Amino acid sequence: MSETNNQTNNQVNKIELYLNGKIFSGWKSLNVQRSLESMSGRFDLGIAVRPEDDVSVLATGSALVLKMGGQTVITGFLDELKQSIGGQDKTITISGRDKTCDLVDCAIVHHSYQFKNQTAKQIAEAICKPFGISVVWQVQTPEANERIPVWQVEPGETAFDNLSKIARHKGVLVTSDVDGNLLFTEPSSKQVGNLTLGENLLELEQTDSWLERFSLYRVIGDAEQGGAKGDTKTKNKGAKGETTVADDIYGD
Q1: Residue 239: count of CB within 10 angstroms of its CB
Q2: Both 108 and 168 in a single domain?
Q3: Could you tell me which residues belong to the region Disordered (predicted)?
Q4: Is there a domain that residue 194 lies in?
Q5: How many domains does the chain have?
Q6: Burial code of 183-212, b = ≥16 C-beta within 10 A, e = fewer?
């Protein structure tokens, strides 16, 4: 691991960690995970150093920015620092997440736990404000921008859980961007680029699985509609709104 000066570098694959006023490079392993299904991106970095090297500057809880090829990929905090020492070797592994990790870990802070006649964006901004996280709203669908008459928050509910409910309610996606902001967006038909194996896609892995696949799926209705008896006619009766169970094929 080395500390470098803040100079222009044209190495596309260079990994730089900006933390506590210093820039660290020379990492030997890197794993960055970002997904539309995740509200907070995460990373792992590893390197072998000398036992006498001081790594105290890599203090957990520190704010950081991780860049690859000069482009920011994570803006957040250092979660963990692991050290492994054996003989003359010392290995350190650090991991961290986007600033939005606080939304995943922490409960919502609100005086009434209820929002009235506000848009999804306004509710999200109020939830994120105590954590110092900005909301980026990239949604144009009119329905998604309509006000919600009443939106309830359960005491102790995490911001992640409630914000995910808002996104599902409005039919939008919620994730984080590389600057640590909370991002609401929607599917787009615009093509942003191509992935070509051997060029910008270096490795591809595909898995075919037979797990959790079944030949029969049963839908059981509630007791009022005859579902408690396993009635094969439950589906049809429920669709017609019938409530009697007198014609159950299994009887009493």
Answers
A1: 10
A2: yes
A3: 225-252
A4: no
A5: 3
A6: bbbeeeeeeeeeeeeeeeeeeeeeeeeeee
Q: Is 5 exposed, middle or buried (0-12, 13-18, 19+ CB in 10 A)?
A: exposed
CA 138 – CA 111 distance, rounded (Å): 28
Structural contact between residues 163 and 182, judged by C-beta atoms closer than 8 angstroms: yes
Chain center to CA of 89: 35
Q: Where does residue 69 fall: left (phi above 0), alpha (psi -120 to 50 degrees), or beta otherwise? A: left
Q: Are residues 223 and 157 in the same domain?
A: no
Range of the domain at 69: 2-98
Q: What is the pLDDT of residue 203?
A: 87
The pLDDT > 70 percentage for the chain reads 83
Segments of the chain scoring below 50 in pLDDT: 1-10, 234-235, 238, 240-252
Whole-angstrom Cα distance, residue 213 to residue 143? 36
Dihedral of alpha carbons 219, 220, 221, 225, sign: positive
